[in-house]
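Quick note —
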Amino acid sequence: MIPVTSFAGKTVAVFGLGGSGLASCHALKAGGAEVVAGDDSADNVAKAAQAGFITADLRNVSWTNFSALILTPGAPLTHPAPHWSVLMARQAGIEVVGDIELFCRERRRHAPEAPFVAITGTNGKSTTTALIAHLMQVAGYDTQMGGNIGTAILSLEPPRMGRVHVVEMSSYQIDLAPSLDPSVGILLNVSEDHIDRHGTLENYAAVKARLVAGVQPQGTSIVGVDDGWCRNIADRLDQAGKRVVRISVKNPLPDGIYVERETIVQASGGARREIAKLGGIGSLRGMHNAQNAACAAACALATGIGTETLQSGLRSFPGLAHRMEQVGRRGNVLFVNDSKGTNADAAAHALSSFGDIFWIAGGKPKLGGITSLTEYFPRIRKAYLIGEAAQEFAGTLGTRVPHEISQTLDVAVASAARDAEASGLADPVVLLSPACASFDQYRNFEIRGTAFRDLVTAMPGVKPVV
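Predicted structure written out below.
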């Protein structure tokens, strides 16, 4: 845990008592603050009270003694309207911040030179965060990974030299961290997302840009420049005098890092050198993962990691569970769990990464279905449709893709495995990438992915991928 000493002797309101909120309460108390905690969930309030915190309905207390409101990222700061607790804080004239901001203040107070890597982007944040943490561990760092990827940042060990914090951040978390100042900041990409919480795409992009704009004076801003929003952000950072490393997987760059024929290349002043190869690394398959790997490579170089360690770390990266996870092989059939592919855009990454696919798709459908995936249909040898979306997806596939309505995951896995083995293809892939939410049959995508993994590994003759 990281004790938050910046509010020692003061009283702080905390709204939102999920994982990060409760961690904030513990960290503030450990640092000498008094906490008054609230939540709209009676269960969360009860857990906080059980943990020994003062709890209250923050609508009905005096805010005059509060020094700050620590807000959960799940509560809106601006759009579609500020949360009622934000309005009360503003009326009382106190600041509204989140747990990332508390971490930044503690780092500045106690270990301002300790390495701190912050990662954001519309897509690829979690994989890039996990990959960088893995590279840091391979390089011998005491590595702390958290933030939006799972572990609340204040539940990690405190910053110090020799210890690196690798932290994934959503736009909601950045919004609540006004003094965010990583030593390395990474912005992967920007595409339309979370407009309901930021009002416009311009506002959303501006929030994302703050992560790389706030990098410390001697630090490094790493920006993927394959979309217009990020290209403009990189140019503005340049003009502001920041050290910027541009990343592309679409075009060679005169200065920056790019991917060409499965090779990560560093260019400077027209000179180029190959720094790592991605060919044959199953956990980093596909163009989206090439971008993740290139950004991670730029981070490794910025923190002094050599190319041999970088290559070793890339090759040994196991990947994230439920994201293009290679579950096993039976004969020449590869089984891939991409349960995190909960919409068409996410499924497109998986479909673009393989040639002969026996595709398991379906679940609770999202707006637009799979109509945007038609360019990948020639890669699909057969589809196995499950859940509420089965009939809708069958209609979209029509006569272009052979398919069957399997309804349930167990039937789909058995049928896909049978057909892949009988296909005679050199490298058939049974791919679970549902392009749907899981909620019609599973509580979340993790449980759905685990069910797929269990079904595959229970089949006779399945061997782990090495």
